[in-house]
# Entry
Amino acid sequence: MFNLKNRVVVISGASSGLGAQMARGFAVQGADLVITARRIERLNALAEELRATGVKVLPVQCDVTDPVQVDAAAAAAEKEFGKVDVLVNCAGSAKNAGVLEMTNEEWDFTMSADLDSVFYVTRAFAKIMKKNNYGRIINIASMYGLVGNPAIDTVAYHASKGGVVNFTRAVAAELAKFNITCNCICPGYFATELTEDVLKTDEFTAYMKATVPLGRYGKTGELNAGAIFLASDEASYVTGVILPIDGGYTAI
Ligand SMILES: NC(=O)c1ccc[n+]([C@@H]2O[C@H](COP(=O)([O-])OP(=O)(O)OC[C@H]3O[C@@H](n4cnc5c(N)ncnc54)[C@H](OP(=O)(O)O)[C@@H]3O)[C@@H](O)[C@H]2O)c1
# Structure
């Protein structure tokens, strides 16, 4: 089960963190990969590493907040592989502030990086999936898209990720007729470039231990099983699902 050989998997935000971890996980399942981000040198290094395992990898430089670059990335993927089976919308970034202090620029930056981008990328790649009457879209939102939090003021991030959660349901309903599923993973706390400055503090670690039932941060690669399942042929009747992988944070 869950073999992805001959499947083409596109991952946005694959130059670091959860996106790079998922690329490694998909390669183990035999998938060919299109990895995108802005830092092309990081993508090239990851591509070299993954090709050594026997899969094909196309690195594509792309800023997901620019729909022209996104459409060009989709065209490059289709030209190289002739199809796209799986899309993982993982790219994201945020400027943190509370609702009373947040500037318009901080709000716009976050909505653009985390919500507009998911729309641009989904639109471009789902058109390719539709031609083949097959697709698996997996959006990486956040547990903060499901609940508020008292520890970090990050109102735009909550809003954008909440938008990704319900975008998932709308896309699932709309694209089902093309045999395209759309599901969402809501990660909890994983130490990455995006989060490590906050997560490594004693104060935040104490907060995490008090609010995450499993009592620890997510480990490297611990998102992969959920993503591989949702990407697989075996998940053919699963769509519109919101899957927290958060150590139980949203369960209490
Ligand atoms: N880590 C966590 O605890 C956590 C929890 C919940 C949700 N998430 C979500 O998981 C996703 C991945 O985050 P991460 O934790 O792995 O952080 P990360 O290590 O900072 O990775 C973010 C990725 O997104 C890419 N990216 C950011 N802005 C982009 C843009 N405008 N255009 C293209 N690519 C862009 C970055 O690549 P370049 O800089 O090279 O472009 C990088 O590959 C994000 O959507 C994040 O919100 C993370």
Summary: The longest helix spans residues 104-132. Strands lie at 8-12, 32-37, 57-61, 86-89, 135-140, 180-187, 242-245.
